[in-house]
Amino acid sequence: MGFEPPTLNLYEKLRARERASARPGAHVHRSRAFYESVFPNHTVDAVSGFEDVHVHRFTDDGKYLICFSRNQHDLVVYRFRGFGEAETPRRAEAAGPRTPRDARGGDRDADGDENKPPRRAPATTRDKYFDLLYTRPLTVDADLLARDFAVTILEGEYLLVASSTPAEAPPRDAAARERTNANEAGTADVVPARGPR
């Protein structure tokens, strides 16, 4: 009997879960494994407002969005507010001050001038779904953060990021290229994933 690789078919996973027996003495509902195939129930397309950062990924728990600044010197972390928060206005905006109405039915402010429709900058989807948790500069001078490297460690408590110093100019011959690659510096920083405490 040979080893069979696990299937990626959801139907076969569910059938195997139904056929599997529980550990001796365990209740069947408590011994079942967590679903491996989870599908989203809500999708947001064309998210705007992230022009000033490079979005890397969500943390493993899905609560924080890890980003790097465009100049690759700062770590930017956003807290995900959830989809329910985006559907309802914030309490502060909902309970804002009201202006008195005059006899003609128009709105007047404290100076007695007619109010025009409120001039608010259109909210981006970033503002609807995310709150800026913190921005932390991690590199100095010519060091640049590696945009494609960020690892959560110790159960999401810390975030490991890497930085490097780019070479002045790419050398033209192979021997000089090897010397430059050997002299190129690299560092790694560990920062708390949930921000300063």
From TrEMBL:
Lineage: Eukaryota, Viridiplantae, Chlorophyta, Mamiellophyceae, Mamiellales
Single GO BP term: positive regulation of proteasomal ubiquitin-dependent protein catabolic process
Domain of life: Eukaryota
InterPro entries in alphabetical order: De-etiolated_protein_1_Det1 (IPR019138)
Compositionally biased region (Basic and acidic residues): 88-117, 170-181
Annotated region (Disordered), positions in chain: 88-124, 163-197
Protein name in UniProt: Uncharacterized protein
GO cellular component terms, A-Z: cullin-RING ubiquitin ligase complex; nucleus
GO molecular function: ubiquitin protein ligase binding; ubiquitin-like ligase-substrate adaptor activity
